[in-house]
């Protein structure tokens, strides 16, 4: 397969325009670290942003950074860290789950709306994304947004591109708002709670005025207990005060510890990257969003039918669930669970033949699918950009 690696935006425009004229279907990618995700699409060639690298704008005083889409996330984080700043939404690294190599790109973070545990406080990647440049399926260069949050007039293409998985355009540059890196991080660990008790504790913490930045529950293998994690970040004095007050609010839950330092950082990284479920790729991985209070019921429903393992992030609103690969990898059971309890499920990891046979993303009602198809046609009339990556025929 031919791999196009444009050197600049104009080069990308020419490649896509010629592909549209010839009907050449293009696989849109960065460095390919998330290639095994989504529906397998049948394409004729590939266009990669790996040649579009470098920070194009960084103004620490304005808390804004712009980078070409193929810039490694690690490079962006390194530049920000040198000025005591960070990407507020804590983007996940999928390489460990997917078994891929290479460096994840900042463009993929925007294109797939990749976020981590801090989303409960800072919002998703799309909430920090304030500007994009991209080439649509006609080969036209489009710019939307800019360097400040309130500069949108008309259709907000920035939010539309976030999470579009390369199906609407080939991103060439992204601009994010950033935040100062906290001085201290401390994690309250409550041990021995079952799922329902853990969600109660997490809900109490998130409903407090103490600015929780991480709220997760890691059940034990026997599902009768586990570790419930509540993270606070900020200035040292502030963290001390908030932690003491939080412990008072949660005093009915016993067996509390405070975890800090390298061990705490590694633990939250394992939550962020879902490596708690790592099993050498021998099971399917699902990402399920639901109302936090419904999480335990949904997990129990799945466990009645499948040999499932799971943990909770986002205060219980996000479940990472692993299931056996046999048959549909649990798709029918997961879809039934989201219909019953509300929410949506995405198949993150499974062999290509499974991802071809089942809905990878939560099926949309027909009215929404008509809207999805209409947006796709308006941005990519010839249907050449990542065809079928999210939904069959789109």
Automatic annotation (TrEMBL):
<keyword id="KW-0274">FAD</keyword>
<feature type="region of interest" description="Disordered">
    <location>
        <begin position="26"/>
        <end position="48"/>
    </location>
</feature>
<dbReference type="InterPro" id="IPR036318">
    <property type="entry name" value="FAD-bd_PCMH-like_sf"/>
</dbReference>
<dbReference type="Pfam" id="PF01565">
    <property type="entry name" value="FAD_binding_4"/>
</dbReference>
<dbReference type="GO" id="GO:0019154">
    <property type="term" value="F:glycolate dehydrogenase activity"/>
</dbReference>
<dbReference type="InterPro" id="IPR016166">
    <property type="entry name" value="FAD-bd_PCMH"/>
</dbReference>
<keyword id="KW-0285">Flavoprotein</keyword>
<dbReference type="InterPro" id="IPR016171">
    <property type="entry name" value="Vanillyl_alc_oxidase_C-sub2"/>
</dbReference>
<dbReference type="InterPro" id="IPR006094">
    <property type="entry name" value="Oxid_FAD_bind_N"/>
</dbReference>
<feature type="domain" description="FAD-binding PCMH-type">
    <location>
        <begin position="1"/>
        <end position="181"/>
    </location>
</feature>
<dbReference type="InterPro" id="IPR016164">
    <property type="entry name" value="FAD-linked_Oxase-like_C"/>
</dbReference>
<keyword id="KW-0560">Oxidoreductase</keyword>
<dbReference type="InterPro" id="IPR016169">
    <property type="entry name" value="FAD-bd_PCMH_sub2"/>
</dbReference>
<protein>
    <submittedName>
        <fullName>Glycolate oxidase subunit GlcE</fullName>
        <ecNumber>1.1.99.14</ecNumber>
    </submittedName>
</protein>
């Amino acid at each position: 397969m031919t791999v196009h690696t444009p050197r600049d935006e104009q080069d990308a425009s020419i490649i896509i325009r010629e592909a549209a004229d010839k009907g050449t279907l293009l696989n849109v990618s960065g460095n390919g670290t998330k290639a095994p995700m989504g529906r397998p699409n049948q394409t004729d060639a590939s266009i990669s942003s790996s040649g579009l690298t470098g920070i194009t704008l960084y103004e620490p005083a304005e808390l804004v950074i712009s980078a070409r889409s193929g810039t490694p996330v690690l490079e962006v984080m390194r530049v920000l860290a040198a000025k005591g700043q960070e990407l507020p939404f804590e983007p996940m690294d999928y390489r460990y789950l997917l078994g891929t190599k290479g460096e994840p790109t900042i463009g993929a973070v925007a294109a797939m709306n990749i976020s981590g545990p801090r989303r409960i406080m800072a919002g998703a990647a799309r909430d920090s994304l304030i500007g994009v440049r991209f080439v649509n399926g006609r080969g036209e260069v489009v710019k939307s947004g800019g360097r400040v949050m309130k500069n949108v007039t008309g259709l907000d293409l920035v939010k539309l591109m976030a999470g579009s998985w390369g199906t609407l355009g080939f991103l060439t540059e992204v601009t994010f708002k950033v935040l100062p890196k906290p001085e201290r991080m401390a994690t309250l660990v409550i041990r021995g709670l079952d799922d329902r008790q853990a969600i109660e504790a997490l809900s109490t913490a998130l409903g407090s005025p103490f600015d929780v930045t991480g709220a997760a529950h890691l059940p034990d293998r026997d599902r009768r207990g586990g570790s419930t994690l509540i993270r606070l970040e900020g200035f040292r004095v502030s963290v001390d005060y908030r932690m003491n007050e939080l412990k008072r609010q949660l005093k009915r839950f016993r067996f509390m510890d405070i975890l800090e330092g390298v061990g705490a950082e590694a633990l939250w990284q394992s939550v962020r990257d879902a490596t708690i479920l790592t099993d050498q790729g021998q099971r399917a991985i699902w990402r399920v969003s639901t109302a936090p209070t419904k999480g335990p019921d949904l997990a129990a429903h799945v466990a009645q039918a499948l040999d499932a393992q799971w943990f909770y992030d986002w205060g219980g609103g996000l479940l990472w669930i692993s299931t056996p690969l046999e048959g549909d990898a649990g798709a029918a059971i997961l879809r039934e669970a989201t219909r019953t309890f509300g929410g949506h499920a995405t198949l993150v990891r499974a062999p290509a033949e499974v991802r071809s046979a089942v809905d990878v993303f939560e099926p949309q009602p027909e009215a929404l699918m008509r809207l999805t198809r209409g947006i796709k046609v308006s941005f990519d009339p010839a249907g050449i950009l990542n065809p079928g990556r999210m939904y069959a025929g789109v």
